[in-house]
């Protein structure tokens, strides 16, 4: 599965901490889009899609959530609970997000601009896409 934990470079001193993120260094691709998810209500699950070509890195910069990844052969659950680590999500990976804490802010770096045509929003279509590519 095209997943990899990405350590963030935490800098700081007695005043506090800072994480600087640079494309093609900390993030393994050029960054075309950045977005964040916040204010997710208790019990709400999100995601439920895959991308044909988009690559992403997700970081819980505050709070935590569980991410579920599926490559059509295996499912893996990871807890994102630190602004000092992210997860690289490669292409063709179904992902779901759940167990958001009330204060969760999930920051995502993507290598492409938004393109609805890149989404696979139904799990059976995702599996069919994997079989034909």
From TrEMBL:
It comes from Undibacterium pigrum. CDD domains: cupin_QdtA-like. Gene3D superfamilies: Jelly Rolls. Residues 2-129 form the Sugar 3,4-ketoisomerase QdtA cupin domain. It comes from the Bacteria. This is dTDP-4-dehydrorhamnose 3,5-epimerase-like enzyme. Signal peptide: none annotated. SUPFAM superfamilies: RmlC-like cupins (SSF51182). InterPro entries: QdtA_cupin_dom, RmlC-like_jellyroll, RmlC_Cupin_sf. It holds the Pfam family FdtA.
């Amino acid at each position: 599965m095209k997943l990899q934990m990405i350590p963030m470079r935490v800098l700081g001193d007695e005043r506090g901490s800072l994480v600087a993120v640079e494309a093609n260094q900390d993030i393994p691709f050029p960054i075309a889009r950045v977005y964040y998810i916040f204010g997710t209500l208790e019990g709400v699950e999100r995601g439920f899609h895959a991308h044909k070509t988009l690559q992403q890195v997700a970081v819980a910069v505050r709070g935590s959530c569980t991410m579920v990844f599926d490559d059509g052969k295996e499912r893996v659950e990871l807890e994102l609970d630190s602004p000092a680590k992210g997860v690289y999500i490669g292409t063709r990976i179904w992902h779901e997000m759940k167990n958001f804490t009330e204060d969760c802010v999930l920051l995502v770096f993507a290598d492409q601009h938004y393109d609805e045509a890149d989404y696979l929003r139904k799990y059976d279509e995702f599996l069919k896409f994997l079989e034909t590519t």
